[in-house]
């Protein structure tokens, strides 16, 4: 009977803390970016405007389909974590090619890593002729997993 009481108390505590979290997030002020899409954050990461001739992104999951376990799996590799961190902190343009990073790795290996990041919903890639350029999906990730990109930016190898 003690175990039943304990689980009931635990469930009550979880229900109260879940309610507190949902109430707190409901009170979070929202701001609207210039494109009109609602968002609840002000990102610390620099974003660049897209050029008029920007190609459509390659296939990627929609914002609502980005899953935490896929994002965490993609970021579990130190090279991929470094790619995302450098795109967040050192980006000089709207998007960057593999060569911008200066990694001494085979092209096939880098292609694989960029594909994993794109398929997890972490990055967006566009095809420019023979090259693919990448950028972090800052707004989508901040909306789905607030604070995650701050952790990536603060990561030290």
From TrEMBL:
Compositionally biased region (Low complexity): 12-34
Top-rank taxon: Bacteria
Start and end residues of each stretch annotated as Disordered: 1-42
InterPro entries: HTH_ArsR_DNA-bd_dom, WH-like_DNA-bd_sf, WH_DNA-bd_sf
Domain HTH arsR-type: 70-150
Biased amino acid composition, Polar residues: 1-11
Protein's UniProt name: HTH arsR-type domain-containing protein
Record lineage: Bacteria, Bacillati, Actinomycetota, Actinomycetes, Catenulisporales
């Amino acid at each position: 009977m003690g175990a039943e009481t304990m689980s009931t108390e635990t469930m009550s505590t979880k229900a109260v803390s879940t309610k507190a979290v949902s109430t707190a997030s409901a009170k979070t002020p929202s701001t609207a970016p210039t494109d009109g899409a609602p968002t609840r954050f002000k990102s610390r990461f620099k974003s660049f405007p897209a050029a008029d001739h920007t190609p459509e992104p390659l296939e990627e999951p929609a914002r609502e389909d980005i899953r935490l376990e896929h994002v965490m799996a993609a970021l579990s590799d130190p090279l991929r974590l470094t790619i995302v961190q450098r795109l967040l902190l050192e980006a000089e343009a709207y998007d960057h090619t593999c060569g911008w990073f200066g990694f001494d790795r085979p092209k096939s290996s880098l292609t694989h890593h960029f594909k994993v990041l794109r398929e997890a919903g972490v990055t967006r890639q566009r095809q420019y002729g023979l090259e693919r350029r990448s950028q972090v999906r800052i707004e989508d990730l901040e909306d789905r997993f607030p604070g995650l990109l701050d952790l990536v930016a603060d990561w030290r190898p």
